[in-house]
Amino acid sequence: MKPEQASEHLQELTTHCIRCGFCLESCPTFVETGNELSSPRGRIYLVRSATEGKLKWEDIRPSLDSCLGCRACETACPSGVQYGQILEFARERISKDHPDKAKEALLGSTTSPSMLRTQLGLGRLLPGKRIPAALSKLLSGEVSEVDRPVPQSEVRLPDLDSSSLPAVKGEVYLLEGCAMRVLFPRVHQATRRLLRRAGYTVHEVNQGCCGSMHAHSGYLDAARQMAEALIHAMPGDLPIVVNSAGCGSTIKEYGHLLPNSEAATAFGARVVDASEFLHRNGFVTELRKSNGLSTKVTYHDACHLSHGQRITAQPRELLAAIPGIELVPLAESDMCCGSAGIYNVLQPKMARSLLERKYANIAATEAAIVATGNPGCHAWIAQAAREHGRKVSVLHTMELLEAAFTGIAPFED
């Protein structure tokens, strides 16, 4: 899309907001601050003013930077405003006019499995030190430090009993992602096993980043390149199973990212969240026949699963089908935990406030486990759990579902 076309498209998107205010109480930053400029309605007004030349783009950057991009406002909006697109196009305009090299480096290191492994290696070499979440911070000093993520340890699960498995009826692709494959390898292990229990095997291919974090941050050219590479890496018509909410939301919307590409639209239509796929394939019945687990569980809605993909019932119905599970509701379950990709690094104060709010709600449930469907939420809430004495374990939904069959609950390290 040419710059002038992008500007016209962005301005057109902002005209759909009727300023009704339904979005206000759904917006975490507005709820925390009460500031209109920290609300979707306020941000849309600023973007429209900038497109009309009434405000300078650099002047509205702080308001857009403070946005989580959680898209809860889209769920609340009666007019169907595509706020996610507004945010991405506006951030793209700002990033091109006023580049942020530190942010670009942070995105590059966070979405590179090899660089992420290097960061974690530094953490092991310097035990007890506060290792920055991205190598760029060591050089720039321009973004705040957070505690380094703690990667999962290996869990030896018993081999699947082939006599109890259904015949293979098909293949799927499994998105390996960036952070997921490094920080949470058990999630991929559990997902593969569950897919086999449903009658599917994973068709292995070399694949790179899907571009979700670049897209959410407004680096759309880089996101488009990654999208095109991923489309090329997964040809054919096999379903593409994704267990990372942020990735799944972006890939399903490749048609918006690459508007002139029929292949991108078709590719996005093949994408299914892992919980969506298992639920669609009758896995509730299979779980009811599992060994089960005797524990109390609550569920946190990852933003890009609940608001980006509108998937809320399927994970809950799968979890509730596990014999012995007591699934208890979580207050403000669909309010962002503050992770939001690299948000918790760039906006640590707001991210911390939202994390403490989320953890207080989790603790109030008295659940032993909180399940979620996104690696960012997983890592951020797990950090709060460590800080609060590990009173609750944080697991991906897929880990908990697989534990229903093995009886081995892979509690946090």
Summarize the structure.
Helix content is 52%, strand content 8%. The protein has 413 residues and is α/β, with parallel strands linked by helices.
Topology at a glance:
Elements: H1 3-14, H2 28-33, H3 40-51, H4 57-65, H5 72-76, H6 83-97, H7 101-110, H8 113-125, H9 136-140, E1 170-174, H10 179-183, H11 185-197, E2 200-202, H12 212-216, H13 220-233, E3 240-242, H14 245-252, H15 254-257, H16 262-269, E4 271-273, H17 274-280, H18 283-288, E5 295-299, H19 303-306, H20 313-320, E6 325-328, H21 343-346, H22 348-365, E7 369-372, H23 375-387, E8 393-396, H24 397-406
Helix pairs in contact: 1-3, 1-6, 3-4, 4-6, 11-24, 17-20, 22-23
Task: Kindly describe this structure.
The protein is an alpha/beta fold and 413 residues long. It has four domains: 3-97, Fumarate Reductase Iron-sulfur Protein, Chain B, domain 2 (Orthogonal Bundle), CATH 1.10.1060.10; 102-140, no CATH class; 162-278; 287-406, Rossmann fold, CATH 3.40.50. The protein is built from 24 helices and eight strands. The chain has a four-stranded parallel beta sheet. Strands 6-5-7-8 form a four-stranded parallel beta sheet, with helices on both faces. Helix 23 links the parallel strand 7 and strand 8. Helix 1 (3-14) packs antiparallel against helix 6 (83-97), helix 11 (185-197) packs across helix 24 (397-406) and helix 17 (274-280) crosses helix 20 (313-320). It is globular, with a radius of gyration of 21 Å. Mean pLDDT is 89; it is low at 123-146.
